[in-house]
Amino acid sequence: MKITQVNDRVHMATGTNVNWALVTDGDGVTLVDAGYPNDHKALFASLAHIGRRPEGVHAIVLTHAHLDHIGGIPAFRDRYPVPVFTGEEEARHARREYVEQITPAQMLRQCTRRAGRRWVGQTLRAVLPHLSMSVTDITGTSAGIPLDIPGGLVPIATPGHTRGHTAWLMPSTGVIFTGDALVTDHPISNLDTGPQILPAVFNEDEQSMLRSLQAISGLPADTVVPGHGPHLRGDLADLMGRAVARATNR
Fold first, then answer.
1. pLDDT for position 178
2. What local confidence, expressed as pLDDT, does residue 211 receive?
3. 131 in a domain, yes or no?
């Protein structure tokens, strides 16, 4: 696990090729995503690393319900039954009313390249034996309405990677947690580090993803904390424009 301090209220933790974030506000903490199932010990360790206790976590917010983002939630909530929030549509996905997730066959096809084989092995170690997981006790939220949780996070509808994907804006510090709507690196990406969308195998609707990036570009933020890769600072419209251009040209 690696911990990166984004600002005095936001830290980004990196587990098995995936990030989650810790937002502090006074004595309270909000977790943004929760890593893979077998990252759950690292999830607890990330709180200790920044001098916080799990009892101080008031809420978990999800960008989307893939296993690498919901995996630590069951272990955490077994001991600390905090509320979990995501967008209205993604709440249905989290409850597994339907599934939008890379399939085993699609994963196996990544093994034709060395980077793909390495990623598949790391992923299986991070997931097994938890191939099936849901979050049934979850609250759907309306886009654009701030939540009364540490950080005052605002859900932003960013469909495309999944149909209900939800980014989270922290207006007080100009940070946007983009989940997998926008990333900056991935083990099987053919692109250099920088603003980008994930490889096509992970995405439900890439045209919707690009429209979501254009919508994000007008938000009051200058720092991106993604689901994969290092965080970025800069003009948001420029970062989103670079991601759109790279997706269009790949």
1. 98
2. 96
3. no
